[in-house]
Specification:
Helix content: 25-40%
Strand content: 25-35%
Radius of gyration: 21 Å
Bound molecules: flavin-adenine dinucleotide
Distance between the termini: 23 Å
Shape: globular
CATH topology of the largest domain: FAD/NAD(P)-binding domain
Number of strands: 18
Number of helices: 13
């Protein structure tokens, strides 16, 4: 079979490249080894985050991706569950970070809130100890487990992209690609195989000293009628999300939290809360790193995540309805990697927890530079 672009992997990074290729009028085939995408792209918060992304190219990439999500959503029939982000600040040292952040180009369109304004934005926010926060209008939230298959269906229906599910790519030596079921002749191949560090072109990843990161996630049912007006984050996020954490003003907060919230930091816990159409909240997350990560979710870690949720929101009753883990690849150096082993081939990996927020912009860059 012939095509102009063969994409390996039907996660968000693969779909982003398929869309970018289809917009150029290319004949695109996506080959996915599982019968449906069940990787990081359906396990995430569906939180398209701009505010807090690493300053510079990655932040700009996130802004562009957010525009592309807004363009794609109505065409593909995707619901935007909610927009915006509220960062609740309870620690005195958080205030200097938020002030410094707002003074940068990344603060554009964001608003500093005092405690009363934060409470007005989000009824149910725990009032005790609340100092205020930051509101960003830029974020979007989609339900990833629905969005990923919907985008694939839309690419197939509207853009003629061909999907081959349940087919592993075994060799990619463009123009020849061999899979577990067929052979292809393609002008270009882009490998978007997510956290697969030991598969295709494994030797190209070795020099980057990549590792894996595993996250624990929960879905909880809050009391009936509880409405989250925007995604919610809090102090712990300010020492994790690089757009804040790399500011010099973040150091005192990190020192305080290292002493006061040692358990949370030891498990890489910070809080993101988003809401789904049925009212349930997706709550996370923890971060454990290593070359191989046992698939056993720890109850103690879930407890710490829920403790943080209760610090931020007054939710008298809470039923846990789902728990899961997810994995992505991480680099200590860069937020994403693009490798060109030969002129017809690109390898693209988002090396951190930002693929939903940046893949669309990244794919545009990859195709523009090719
Ligand atoms: C729990 C969790 C929460 C997150 N939250 C957010 C968030 O809120 N916002 C955000 O921006 N990012 C978030 N992320 C990160 C984001 O989900 C990832 O960066 C993104 O999904 C990576 O997309 P991907 O397409 O590279 O990987 P994947 O979704 O893992 O897709 C890769 C696909 O390639 C396929 N594949 C691999 N090898 C082959 C082969 N040889 N042949 C055929 N197919 C192959 C795999 O089967 C897989 O389906 C989160 C991640 C996790 C795990």
């Amino acid at each position: 079979m012939n095509c102009d672009l063969l994409v390996v992997g039907a996660g968000i990074v693969g779909l982003a490249h398929a869309w970018a290729g289809a917009r150029r009028g290319w004949r695109v085939v996506v080959v996915e080894r599982d019968a449906a995408c069940i990787g990081a792209s359906i396990r995430n918060f569906g939180f398209v985050t701009v505010t807090g992304q690493q300053r510079g190219a990655h932040w700009r990439r996130a802004r562009r991706s957010r525009e592309l999500w807004a363009e794609l959503a109505p065409q593909a029939g995707l619901r935007i569950e909610h927009a915006g982000l509220l960062v609740a600040a309870r620690h005195e040292a958080s205030e200097a970070i938020l002030e410094a952040f707002l003074a940068t180009e990344m603060g554009e369109g964001c608003e500093r809130l005092d405690a009363a304004a934060a409470l007005a934005r989000q009824p149910g926010l725990r009032a005790e100890g609340l100092r205020g926060g930051l509101y960003s209008p830029h974020e979007l939230r989609v339900e990833s487990r629905e969005a990923i298959p919907r985008i694939a269906a839309w690419l197939a229906e509207r853009h003629g992209v061909e999907f081959r599910f349940g087919e592993s790519v075994l060799e990619a030596e463009a123009p020849h690609v061999r899979t577990s079921r067929a052979s292809y002749h393609t002008e270009r191949v882009v490998v978007c195989s997510g956290a697969e560090l030991h598969g295709l072109f494994a030797e190209r990843w070795t020099p980057h000293a990549l590792s894996l990161c595993q996250l624990q996630m929960l879905r909880v049912k809050p009391p009936a009628g509880f409405r989250l007006n925007a995604a919610l984050m809090a102090d712990l996020s300010l020492v994790r999300y690089e757009g804040y954490a790399a500011l010099p003003q973040a150091r005192p907060l990190l020192e305080h939290l290292s002493a006061e919230r040692h358990d949370a930091l030891a498990h890489g816990i910070h809080l993101i809360v988003v809401q789904s159409a049925d009212g349930s909240l997706v709550v996370g997350d923890s971060h454990h790193y290593g070359p191989v990560l046992p698939p056993f979710a720890s109850e103690a870690v879930d407890r710490l995540i829920l403790d943080e949720l209760h610090r931020q929101l007054t939710l008298p009753s809470l039923e846990i309805v789902e728990r899961w883990t997810g994995v992505y690849a991480v680099s200590a150096e860069v937020p994403c990697l693009v490798e060109a082993p030969d002129p017809r081939t690109r390898l693209v990996m988002v090396t951190g927890g930002t693929g939903a927020s940046t893949a669309f912009g990244l794919a545009e860059e990859v195709l523009a530079d090719w």
